[in-house]
UniProtKB/TrEMBL annotation:
InterPro entries: Biotin_Carboxyl_Carrier/Decarb, Biotin_lipoyl, Single_hybrid_motif. Residues 68-144 form the Lipoyl-binding domain. Keywords: Biotin. The keyword Iron does not apply. PROSITE patterns: BIOTINYL_LIPOYL (PS50968). The keyword Cytoplasm does not apply. This is Acetyl-CoA carboxylase biotin carboxyl carrier protein subunit.
Length: 144
């Protein structure tokens, strides 16, 4: 099984609620399991963490471990990429951010709230378009 296929499987598992997947191809078996990572109670409403481990069956060797955090909308509203009109986007794919850095601005009932990064890391994916409506719990940004 080639590395691109394994990466695609890891990506799928990270986006789904599937707990375990076993795929066999050309005599190689890959087992992928989603395991929750400890999240402090104060952050659990706005983020989701998953650790994804891959084990190859030829002697069950650990192949890769990837940890990512998905920051979710704390409330319904309109999400903005920048702190003010015309300003550059706060969360740009590939950018390194520190814990507490503002990722986006959520507007609810004319109140603007900055959604902070719960931890330091690189921004892997931005799930929203500027000015989009989001519901509480919708994914906003993925940090690795």
């Amino acid at each position: 099984m080639d590395l691109d296929k394994i990466k695609a499987l890891l990506d799928y598992m990270g986006r789904s609620r599937v707990q375990e997947m076993r795929v066999t191809q050309d005599g190689t078996t890959v087992v992928i399991r989603n395991a929750p990572v400890h999240v402090p109670a104060s952050m659990s409403s706005t983020m989701e963490s998953t650790g994804t481990a891959v084990a190859l069956d030829a002697g069950v060797k650990e192949a890769a471990v990837e940890t990512k955090t998905i920051v979710r909308a704390p409330a319904p509203g309109i999400v903005h990429q920048a702190a003010s009109p015309g300003a550059p986007a706060l969360a740009q794919v590939g950018a390194q951010v520190e814990a507490g850095y503002g990722l986006c601005v959520l507007e609810a009932m004319k109140v603007f709230t900055t959604v902070p990064a719960p931890l330091s890391g690189a921004i892997k994916r931005v799930f929203f378009e500027d000015g989009a409506e989001v519901a509480a719990g919708d994914p906003l940004v993925e940090i690795c």
